Amino acid sequence: MADKNTSEKDQISVSLARQPVFDAKRRIWGYELFCVAAAGDISSGLPEESKVAVNLAESTYIGLQQILDRSRKIIVNFSEKGILDNLPYALPSALTVIKISRPLNAWHSALESLSMLKSDGYMIAVDWDSALPDNGSLLGLADIICVDAPSMNKEKLSVEAARAAKNNIMLLANQVEDAAAFDACMRLGFKLFRGHFFKTQEKISVKKMSTGEASRFQLFKTIEQEDPDFDKLAKIIQDDVSISFRLLSYLNSAAFGFPQKVRSIKQAISLLGWRKTKNWLRVAVLTGMACSKISDELIFLATQRGMFLETIGVEHDYWGFDPDTLHLLGMFSLLDVILGSSMDDIVQYLPLEEKLKAALRRDPNNEYYPLLRLAEYLEEAKWAEGESMMRQLNLDSRKVKEAFQKSVNWANELASTQASEIANKD
User: Source organism's superkingdom (predicted)?
Assistant: First the structure.
């Protein structure tokens, strides 16, 4: 009985985060899913992939439905044992990419299972190290080869691109750090891309802040007052038709189940509570201002990052950082990409102290900046770098992992709620 309880507890403790994969037009092609959990060594990466498959099959991954509804692919890592145990069959074949990250040992049996999975409609992705020429049979099954772009020079990347084209295989470039790296990989023939590049602003596209965007920041200033005037706040929200409609739709959704319809903004704030209202409004304002073609993904990431940094502040109060302020730092850290404006232009409108504005400008000497770097490492599954940053900041590793898991769950729940709002509107 104890083993059963432990197993159930472990199952509940695992959450699933996502990393977007883009096509050559910078559209989201799909997501690679990976586990996050408070237990274990964060630098070891994924818990056993059975938890990914089982959680997905049981629909415990909040946010999966939105991915599937949009016909986006999901990339899931499997070991040889997972392949032999037929775990991929827990996932929809038309949208699932089975990824092999480590060389398989029992070639005959595993390859036979992979071949059957491919014939049943699953795609196969293989890390480059697992698809070397002496493993030609595996290469023959691959639909996608994943290459860590920074680890190869241009000549070697060209060779891989030619080999992939010859075998009708797509190349996925990992760790694409900026727009220049994206363009270089695209010219070499890569079709799919994953990495930090989509979080960075392209200087060529930077525009000035519009009057409408500047006025939206006035709402931020009202929200962030220590003792807000709720009558004034309700009026500002009412004057913004889009936000007031979304707030009322949100509270009148089935998720809350209030016996009577919520009909006023003041009533909405009272029922939801100020803290929850404030967090919701932050996201709603960002969503209303977004102009990026991948704004949904960026806002998802910004909300996740905000909750992560807030929780870090709560759990490490000896730092003296205000958790609510850290939440804003995380949420605002992608504003330049979301709005297509320079961060220098944006920060003058933000209700933040100068130190936080410097962190948003990416000042490497700023005391808050390492926290943003830590968030980025974990978002990109750079476990070794994350572990190193935790030691540098003297953070409790378990508390950091709990904070990241909490932020993943919170962002997924919020995304799910937003999807419900859209469905109710339709």
Answer: Bacteria
